[in-house]
Amino acid sequence: MGDPKGFLKIGKKPAGNRPVHERIGDYSEVEQTLNSEDRMLQASRCMDCGIPFCHWGCPVDNLIPEWNDLFYRGDWKGACDRLHSTNNFPEFTGRICPAPCEHSCVLNIGEDPVTIRENEVAVVERAFAESYIKPVPPEIRTGKKVAVIGSGPAGMAAADQLNKAGHSVTLFEKDEKIGGLLRFGIPDFKLNKRTIDRRLEVMVAEGLEIRTGIEVGRDISGKEIIDQYDAVCLAIGALRPRDLTVDGRELDGIHFAMEYLTQQNRINDGAYVAYDKRITAKGRKVLVIGGGDTGSDCVGTAIRQGATCVTQIEILPKPPEKRADDNPWPYFAKTLKTTTSHEEGCERMWSLSTLRFIGMQHRVTHAEVEEIDFPGTRQQIETDLILLAMGFVHPEHEGLVSELGIALNTRKNVEVDNRMATNIDKVFATGDAANGASLVVTAIASGRKVAKKIDDFLLSFVF
User: Does this model's pTM top 0.70?
Assistant: First the structure.
C-alpha cells in the first residue's frame, strides 16, 4: 500500500449531502462530491488486510484493496480498469448500493469503515470526465446471436458481457427506455438518469443492439425469439408486488409503490401525465406501508411533491442501533437505517400490522393497524394517500413465462439449474427473475455469471 498506516492518520470523511431545505425542492442527486485530494486520502485508509473481508462481502467480488491503492497513488485509470474487471457499472453501485463491503470492512469493527462506495463513484466519475471509459468493440464476432429480454442491471450486465465476448446481442425492453427499475423505479434524487444514458452510449458504440417498446410474449412471441436467436436470456425482474388483501383495499387513494415512483420518474423525464391520472402527494397525508428502500424512496418523493405529512410503518420490530450479538462483523449489520429521505421529515413506526382501510365516498381516509406485540391494541392512522411498498414476490408469469412453459420453483421464480438454464432449450435466466428481488449489485453479479454460462453454451457448438 502507498501508506500502510493511512487508517491511523486519516479519519473517515464522508462527502455528505445537500442541505435538506435545498434538496427537497428538486429531484437532483442528494449526495455531494468530495474534492479529489480528500477523496484520495480516504482511499489511503484501506489497510490492505491479509484477508480482505470487503471482497468477501461484495457480490461482484470487487477488488477493493487493489483499486483503492491505485486510487491513492493517483492512478485513476488503473483504479478504473480494476473496478471494471469485476463490475460493469460502478457508477450505479457507487450511488445506490447499500455497500455490504463497508459492513465487512475490517475498520468497521470500530464502526469507522473505509468509504468504499463513495471512493468507487469518485473513480468512475473521474474516468468518464477524463475519457478513460471509451467504446472498445470486440475484434472478432462469433456469428452467434443472443437475445437478452429485460434491461435492468442484470440484463444490462449480461448483454454487455456477451457483446464483449463477440456475440451479436440484442437487448429487448418493454418500456420506452433502457434501464428497468434503475431508470423508472429509483428516484432521480438517488440516481440521475443521465448516468444510465452515458453508459448506454458506450455499449451501443461497442455494437449492442437495443430494441425498446417491445414486450416479448405480447408484441412478439417467445417462440419467434427462440427461433431467431442462438440463446435467450430472461432478465425480466421480479415485478409482481406484494399486496395487502384486507377490507377496503379497493378504495381510491391506495397504490403500489412502483405505480407511484415510475410515474414521477417519467414526469421528470418530460412525459405528460393527465391530471386525472396523476398520483400526487401534494397536500395529502401520506402513509407508506413497508420499511425498506422502496418505502424510503416513496417518502422522499412524497416530500418533494408537497405532502402535508408522511408516515412510514413496518410490520417488523424496530432494528437496534448497534449490532446484536447474533449479528457479528463481518456480516451485514441489521441495524436501524436512516436514509436521506427519512432525514427530510417522516414519522416512522414499527411492529404494526395493517388490518383494514377505511374510507368515505370511495376514498381512503384511515388505515387501522394493530401492534404485533400487543394484539388487540389498535389505532387508526389518518391518511388520504397510501403507498404499498412491501416488496416483490416473483416475476410476472403472464405473457412470456406462461407462453414458453417456463418451469417455476417453489417461490414462483424462474427455475434454473447450475448452468443458469431453464427447462426450455437454449433459454437461460438471471437476476431477480431467478433469484427473487434483491440488490442492484447482486443483479449485476448474476448478469455477469449467466453471460459466462451462455458463452460456454454457445462456444460448445463451435468446437
Answer: yes
